[in-house]
Structures are given as structure tokens and as C-alpha cells.
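Page 42, continued from yesterday. The earlier attempt failed because a stray header line got pasted into the input along with the sequence. Redoing it now with the clean sequence only.
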Amino acid sequence: MDIEKRIQEVLDKIRPYLQNDGGDVLFKRYENGVVYVKLTGACSNCPLIDSTLEDGIEEAIINEIPEVIKVVNED
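This time it went through. C-alpha cells are written below.
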């Protein structure tokens, strides 16, 4: 299975938690070990966005996909 499909599967597991808080995450692309996402809705301007990104999304993806070294939110 390719990495992008695996990334989507991990994001699909996380998505309900973000949606419960009025937000969402969209997969943009994967390049050189870095996953680029866009946090939307309530997540886009939440004061805890860095924590959500690093402690939630990034940790979940890295735990399941060792090829990923970082997750970046881009507008």
C-alpha cells in the first residue's frame, strides 16, 4: 500500500475527534518524509492548533508510518 493511502487511513481515524470540536483535517501532499495538511473549521484558528498538530496528528501518523518524520499545517 502506498504511503499516501496509509496517511489518508490514519487521518480518517483522527477526523471524528476533530469534527467533534467543529474542525477537520485535509491531506495536501507527502514529500521527502513530510506530510502537508490543512486544518480547517474550528481547528484553523484554535489556540491549541500546534498541540493538535504535533501531539495528535503528527504522533498518530508517525506511529503508524515510520517513513514520516514531520507533519506541517499549511494554509
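Notes: Helices lie at 3-20, 49-64.
Reminder to self: strip header lines before submitting.
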